[in-house]
Write a structure and sequence with these properties.
Structural class: alpha/beta
CATH superfamily of the largest domain: Peptidase S8/S53 domain
CATH class of the largest domain: Alpha Beta
């Protein structure tokens, strides 16, 4: 690919530098595409990586050419025909400039074609239509520029790298419990992300209790999940996650250990994926080595049994009594103990540190929500912990099958080594080099999300658990998913499998539900997505497989659906032990290219007239199954 010309001319004008590495985006997702793919479709964008972690530069299927004089239009048309390009129109204000578009079967990128037009010497100038983002940030929230922990303008290498992470996920479908002094749940920048489930540990009842004058919990909640792009105040690390308020005054009571234990256990039993704990024993200042077995049992239960045995992620503040680390943060190795740093990348002077420290996050001068629709800046490891809880939410949103230990490992392995501290390898610290003041380093949301996507998952999944209204179910498997569950109205389900998704008799996506199928490997970067099942009135697979003979065929793996050859030159033979009633084929952009009714066990699907690449074959068998499988035309 010739990019030298643009590096030496146009790109000098915008003062950026492109690296040789490039990649593509499709519908907002980073994808890996072979040269066989048609790159001219407007929904696929070629991105060029830039140095110093600057935002990538994208092109599309359009570009611009400036004539030397009006008489050169015929010459432009001749070369456009030769290059397999269409002239769209002349610019109405600058009549020497013309807008052109790559034809669908053009295998080159607009950047390559631009170079070829320029190198003819026939034209005054060309413009590859770089997609500039003229917004001043990745969020339109009014105070985003003051959230140095998310986007540090003065020290760009000292933040959690949130803008890149948000290009992948914003934390959808994850519940974060905040065990704290209560949350002002009607805050304009929070209320949309407050869960309907809440609990007060001292009364033992729902809902949680907020008392005027206590703003700690509201501040913590805003750092985790304040709303994004509402042109208002701040934004949280995981702005699509839900906050579950669990209240306690955090003042001395005769039953405080049991009350806090109850808060943790209630969160686990009511679906919390993560619990943020910005509290502790003040470095043992008044308690020395006293501990509470009942509280420790609750912590152990959450880590071992939460999230249906995967483990609830527990994030604890390390405490503000340097150098000691607070209890119970120090109790369990699998709790994520979080210290605080300043905007210059050094340990906050108050931050607890030592052998139990796992990670650090922004904790000095942190702006977030407070009661009565306000915001304020606060210092403390209490402010650092919710940054990590938010990153944990981003991780689980892209890979909900991770264990609590997996999440900890991902956060620790991807941490940024900042501040000029000496990080050393220690056999007792298995996830990289470590420092007693900084742990594994500063949490990196983007790297953590990418690593989470690549983590392994089950080979095959058999989904029977129903998805209730308001719930989100994200499932992924290396090979196949078979679903026979019910997705209620207002329920959301996204099923991702490497080869096929099979909807078994009894599956029912009710009116008002949102169900999507993604055919790709776990954590894969390709985006071959079908919305075929999304937002339809009703999808119901009838229970008509009572016949024992038919049921035995379904259970016999040797009698399954066969597609051969795959890949092929466009002709695919399909053989099924059960009659196929309907089939369709969709291209990588989700557009249907073939759809036919049939009533046979054998058929031939012909896509030879379509471009090379990956397609999604969807078919329905007479037993009610809907099957989606990917096929490759070479």
């Amino acid at each position: 690919m010739k990019i030298k010309f643009y590096i030496s001319t146009i790109l000098l004008f915008i003062n950026v530098s492109l690296e040789a590495q490039s990649y593509y985006y499709y519908q907002g997702n980073k994808v890996n595409l072979s040269q066989d793919y048609n790159l001219s479709n407007q929904s696929i964008y070629l991105h060029f990586k830039r140095q110093n972690n600057l935002q990538s530069i994208a092109i599309s299927n359009i570009f611009y050419v400036k004539l030397k004089n009006t008489a050169d239009l015929n010459l432009l048309q001749q070369i456009a025909n030769k290059k397999n390009v269409t002239i769209l129109h002349k610019n109405s204000f600058m009549p020497l400039w013309y807008k052109l578009k790559l034809n669908k079967d053009n295998s080159k990128s607009s950047l390559e074609i631009c170079n070829e037009f320029y190198e003819t010497g026939y034209f005054a100038n060309v413009d590859p239509a770089f997609q500039f983002n003229f917004r001043n940030s990745c969020s339109n929230d009014a105070d985003f520029g003051n959230l140095w922990g998310l986007n540090n303008k003065i020290n760009p290498d000292i933040d959690i790298n949130i803008c890149n992470a948000w290009s992948v996920t914003e934390g959808n479908g994850v519940n974060v419990a905040v065990l704290d002094q209560g949350i002002y749940k009607t805050h304009n920048d929070l209320n949309a992300n407050i869960s309907s489930l809440s609990y007060d540990t001292q009364s033992g009842n729902s809902p949680s209790i907020f008392t005027s004058g206590r703003n700690h919990g509201t501040h913590v909640a805003g750092t985790i999940a304040a709303e994004k792009d509402n042109n208002l105040q701040v934004v949280g690390v995981a702005p699509k996650s839900k906050i579950m308020s669990i209240s306690h005054t955090l003042s001395l009571t005769k039953s405080i250990s049991e009350e806090l234990a109850d808060g943790i256990n209630w969160a686990v039993e009511n679906g919390a994926h993560i619990i943020n704990n910005s509290w502790g024993d003040q470095g043992g200042k008044y308690y020395d080595n006293l501990h509470s077995p009942i509280l420790e049992d609750a912590i152990t239960n959450a880590l071992s049994n939460g999230r249906n045995g995967l483990g609830t992620i527990l994030v604890f503040a390390s405490g503000n009594y340097s150098s000691a680390i607070d209890y119970p943060a120090s109790f369990h190795d699998n709790a994520l103990v979080t210290g605080a740093i300043t905007s210059s990348g050094i340990r906050s002077s108050f931050s607890g540190h030592g052998n139990e420290l796992d990670i650090v996050a922004p904790g000095s001068s942190i702006l977030s929500t407070i009661p009565n629709q306000g915001t304020a800046s606060k210092d403390g490891t209490s402010m650092a912990a919710p940054h990590v809880a938010g990153v944990a939410a981003l991780i689980l949103s892209v890979n909900p099958n991770l264990t609590a230990q997996d999440v900890n490992t991902i956060i620790e392995k991807t941490a940024q080594k900042i501040g000029g501290y000496s990080y050393t390898n220690d056999g007792n610290k298995p996830n990289g080099s470590w420092n007693e003041q900084m742990g594994y380093g500063l949490v990196d949301a983007y790297k953590a999300v990418l690593l989470a996507q690549s983590y392994s998952c089950s080979d095959n999944l058999f989904i029977t658990q129903n998805v209730n209204s308001g719930q989100t179910d994200n499932q992924q498997a290396k090979y196949s998913i078979e679903a026979s569950n019910i997705i209620s109205s207002e329920g959301n389900a996204n099923y991702q499998a490497g080869s096929s998704v099979i909807l078994k008799p009894g599956f029912h996506a009710k009116n008002g539900s949102d169900f999507k199928v993604l055919i790709q490997n776990c954590g894969g970067t390709s985006a071959r997505k079908t919305n075929y099942f999304s937002n339809r009135n009703t999808i119901e697979i009838p229970n008509n497989n009572a016949n024992e003979e038919l049921e035995s065929i379904l259970k016999d793996k040797n009698s399954s659906l066969f597609i051969y050859p795959n890949p092929s030159n466009g002709l695919f033979k399909i053989q099924s032990p059960i009659n196929i009633l309907f089939y369709s084929v969709r291209n990588i952009y989700g557009s249907m290219v073939i759809s036919n009714k049939t009533n046979n066990q054998q058929l031939t699907v012909d896509i030879s007239r379509f471009p090379k690449g990956v397609y999604l074959l969807e078919l329905q068998r007479e037993n009610g199954e809907i099957i989606a499988k990917k096929i490759l035309k070479q």
